[in-house]
Design a protein that fits this description.
By secondary structure, the protein is α+β, with helices and mostly antiparallel strands. It has a single domain, classed as Maf protein. Helices cover about 30% and strands about 25% of the residues. It has 6 helices and 8 strands. Strand 5 and strand 6 form a beta hairpin. Helix 5 crosses helix 6.
Length: about 200
């Protein structure tokens, strides 16, 4: 019987990326929605790692106990803006504000700022709660990043969130302009999930 991994997200764009990155694992991968779990989660950590663990623990409390629970917390850090929006990336300007509006506001705040000072990175922390034979749960946390800069306009449609304004020097385009294979190979989430797959390999 294949191991089940529940991923603590309801974001369909994120789940698509996660399935592609983890397709070589012999596991059944389910989102919270697919598992019928919808706990109230208060993300009050001060780091990406703390918030990822808060989510993973909250979902693990609602499982039958045999499933591995993964959760991520990710966001955009813009150096010129003191690493804003950071851990508040999803809630920046309000959770119901569209990313088109958020992206336009970040570009506006960087008006007149030269390229060399528009440095930024995507950060992704992935946490796992892994059940063990003795009934204890093991917790793992890893971090992945990708460096880039904030462009002057949105470009591309192969992505979500802040992808259209985050440009990667090596490719000369935004992460929303990269094809899925390239994006998953270099992305913060791809880097973090590959690290987590290595850590999980010895446990499942």
């Amino acid at each position: 019987m294949r191991k089940k991994i529940l991923f603590a997200t309801g974001n369909e764009g994120k789940m698509r990326e996660i399935r592609m990155i983890m397709e070589d694992m012999d596991v059944e991968l389910l989102s919270m929605k697919e598992a019928g779990i919808s706990p109230d989660i208060v993300e009050d950590g001060t780091t990406f790692e703390e918030n990822a663990l808060i989510k993973a623990r909250a979902v693990a409390e609602h499982t039958s106990g045999g499933e591995i629970v993964l959760a991520d917390d990710s966001g955009l850090e813009i150096d010129y803006l003191n690493k804003e929006p950071g851990i508040y990336s999803a809630r920046y300007m309000g959770e119901d504000t569209s990313y088109r509006v958020k992206n336009a506001e970040l570009i506006r705040r960087l008006t007149g700022v030269p390229k060399e000072k528009r440095t930024a990175r995507f950060v992704c922390a992935v946490a796992a709660v892994v059940p063990s034979a003795d009934g204890e749960k093991k917790e793992l946390v890893v971090r992945g990043t990708i460096e880039g800069y904030i462009g002057w306009e949105e470009r591309g449609s192969n992505g979500f969130g802040y992808d259209p304004i985050f440009y990667v020097e090596e490719y000369g385009c935004s992460t929303a302009q990269l094809d899925s294979e390239v994006k998953n190979r270099i992305s913060h989430r791809g880097n973090a999930l590959r690290l987590m797959k290595e850590r999980l390999a010895s446990l499942i």
